[in-house]
Amino acid sequence: MDVVSQSRQWLVRDLGRRAYEPVWRAMQAFTDTRDDATADELWVVEHDPVFTLGQAGKPEHVLAPGDIPVLHVDRGGQVTYHGPGQIVAYPLVDLRRIHLGVREMVERIEQSVIDVLADWNILGQRRDGAPGVYVAGAKIAALGLRIRRGCSFHGLAFNVAMDLEPFHRINPCGYQGLQVTSVRDLGGPSRAAELVPALVESLSRQLGLCPRWPDGAPALAQTATGTAHP
What we know:
Elements: H1 3-6, E1 9-18, H2 20-33, E2 40-47, E3 50-53, E4 70-72, E5 79-82, E6 86-92, H3 102-119, E7 133-135, E8 138-148, E9 151-159, H4 196-207, E10 210-212, H5 218-224
Parallel strand pairs: 1-2, 1-10, 3-4
Antiparallel strand pairs: 2-6, 3-5, 6-9, 7-8, 8-9
């Protein structure tokens, strides 16, 4: 496949449920080793329970983590929680190739969530100065990107059908008392997997990319552990 064709596609990898750190390290390795001929990818995953603290994150926003590990990571933003029932989507994209700046990239990712929520008659909204998507003031999707050599990694955490209790152990995204919600609590699906196809379609449409799914699962497992890249 030539570079021109690749610029219109991205490879979608549904990684299932994985621990956070191996996927994070694989994202870093993918970004560090990609070149102009590397196709963009979208990784979709549900993580084991973990709190992640961004580059500017303040430890005091982690109130009582208990038995949930806390990882300091290289994305933007403060502290958030990942756990089962949350769709985490990592767009590994060369922004120059799709002609987007960082701000517009963020806005388009937010819009993709807003569009998916609209399918369930849920009104998602942005909030000035606080990236993410909100419903009636409660956060339903958090967003934190890292850009390296013009390419994005990290991404979106979309609360679909998860236990929200761990959010009470932190100041979500650095905001004391910020309420969080999920699609299930608003009358939507009871399983995160039900929304994966719609989110992939919406992200692809917003970024002007055509999704391409791999033939089988083995390559997914290899990529997520960082041992191989197809």
